[in-house]
Input
Amino acid sequence: MSHSNPNLSVTREIRFKQTPMLRTAAPGSSNKFLIAGQGVLIFKFKTAVTPDFSTELSFSKADNSEGIRLIMNAGYLKLFRYKGQHAEVLFETAKGLPNDKNAFFWVSLDSNNRCYRFGTGEARLETLVFEYFFSSTQSNSFLHNLTDYNFNAALIQPMRLLRDPVQNHVPMKVKGMDELTITDVASAAFMPKANLNSIGQQLYENVAGKKFVLNDDDFPDFAQAIEYSIATPGCWCYETLKTKSDNKPAGLSKQIYLRITLGQNGGESPGIPYVMEVWPPGCFSSIHNHAGANALIRVLHGEIKVHLYPYLGAPKTYNPEGAVFGKGDVTWISPTLNQFHQLVNPNPDGPSCITIQCYMYDADDSGHYGYFDYIGADNQVTSYEPGSDCDFLKFRKIIRKEWENRNK
Ligand SMILES: [Fe+2]
Output
């Protein structure tokens, strides 16, 4: 399968290329891992998981004389080790596959740590369904010699092959070289900027600088002036937000924020690459994805809380408590990780939150899907074209004028 296969459009939310510390490639016709004994295959099913659905995925030696086979169906997942005609059950789950047309899956082989993992959604520990550790006597050179993956192409759509196995929790908060400590690395509490993919690093450089802030010498009260505009009837933010809120269905009046864009759409990103987003107290976004693009988000004012989802339409978040980012914090999105999220201003009584987001497709993303998808009111995946409520320079002028006239 070619990486630019147009059939991948159904899986555009994960146009995998590079993720931090993961070098990736599209599944090829050779069905070879990039490195013997390790890798992740991400895939989805071509048909619904009905009660009579069953299929298998195996990792094998090149001659398929032995390997590991996973049987998957609605009732259970069952892992075997096989050699010739002989097969031994290693592990069986009590629950099978979900029948969810939006779901996708991953299988990770890690011969160095003698571990086999299966998960639903983004390939990461948080979406793990089961793991099986081989004993040292079981494995020896067996796992290292598994070079191929095999599946029924009528039932399984491979989406991506990652070079490196799923092993560690991947931190959401990014730190640059001058902030990163030895303890940060030892505890894996932060994502070193240098470990973002090359586009992620570029985006970081764009927005993480000391002077990339709201309040500058020219307008030292900019953040406060935006708060004033949000809170004051007749002001631009208040009225624009009110119109948005009035147009929302019942119960979603707080699912609103402002998109203030910087510059033009240069064809490298879904919508305009830089967007300043303004989140009034307690307001939130839909659960959405990011067109398989890279993104950086920096908090300029207030706090934002991020809930992550395994895939769009997944029944629940896997970090229900949310990850909260404060002023100056930076978080990231890659084509393979952190794609599915909901943002919330966690402070119902204020302050508002203001973030800057910066987006860019991967260099080899030939699809340039231009929409963010979300789950609409009818529970269907729906496309959203990232738009603009106002250009940044115009916005700044409006806010300044309102601020200067506030007591008149
Ligand atoms: Fe987003």
